[in-house]
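Subject: Predicted fold for dTDP-4-dehydrorhamnose 3,5-epimerase, 196 residues

User T.R. writes:
Posting the sequence so we have a shared reference for the thread.
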Amino acid sequence: MRYAEGVQILDTPLRDVKLVQPRRFGDDRGWFAEVFNTSTFGASALPDNFVQDNHSFSRKGVLRGLHYQLGKPQGKLVRCLSGHIWDVAVDLRRDSPDFGKYAGFDLKPMTDTGDLQMLWIPEGFGHGFLVLSETAEVLYKTTNLYHPAGERSIRWDDATLAIDWPLAALGGLTPVVSAKDEAAVLFTAAELPPVA
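User M.O. replies:
I've generated the structure tokens; pasting them so everyone works from the same file.
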């Protein structure tokens, strides 16, 4: 765990993936939080140069992922604005001790203790999420622009990765994926990022 002015950085089971908790200031009027600041992020060893913001709305049972880009890899700072998602990061860096491992995170607008929480997923990771609430809005900042030619996807239900998605929370629903994600490749056949 590290602290920078106004933000707390928490380690996760995957090296380099971090939970980021901005400080929240509240009174009887409501609350305020500075969720991104270039100098604060730079001082905490997180990236301070994001070039694109993506905002998605999804219904319960929608599963997006597992996505990554070649050529112009994207680091992502993910925040759930409404609802509840289970967010997954998979280490695709072949020179990493965590190669092929994943971690899942419950993301909501606020944690049960009232903390704001974002997830930092560095370049070289696959990313996906499953919507557990009736609807969810997700906002994520990226370190690189969308690069269609480099877009890749690994199957969400890949047996090698064996991700334990919380499907029971869907109450019998089958995850809904896009046609593109339905056609995603298996981990063993995936074109992975080059070794740095």
